[in-house]
């Protein structure tokens, strides 16, 4: 059995909105989840959600191709 040594970095909402999405509002992210197939967050605890950087980048790439 081969193990993959790749690490899938995670990012929190505020950082994702600022660094990856050009400063969009968090409510926009939740709207995109419902209407445009944006990746759903992973819950680390009741008050801590994170997104996969790879999944967000993949969504951004497919969105860019559609535009």
TrEMBL record:
Top-level taxon of the source organism: Bacteria
One Pfam family hit: Phage_AlpA
Gene3D superfamilies: 1.10.238.160
Protein name: AlpA family phage regulatory protein
Organism the protein comes from: Thiomicrorhabdus xiamenensis
């Amino acid at each position: 059995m081969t193990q993959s040594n790749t690490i899938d970095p995670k990012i929190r909402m505020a950082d994702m909105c600022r660094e990856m999405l050009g400063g969009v509002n968090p409510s926009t992210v939740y709207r995109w989840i419902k209407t445009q197939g944006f990746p759903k967050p992973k819950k680390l605890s009741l008050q801590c959600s994170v997104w996969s950087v790879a999944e967000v980048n993949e969504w951004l790439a497919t969105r860019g191709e559609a535009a």
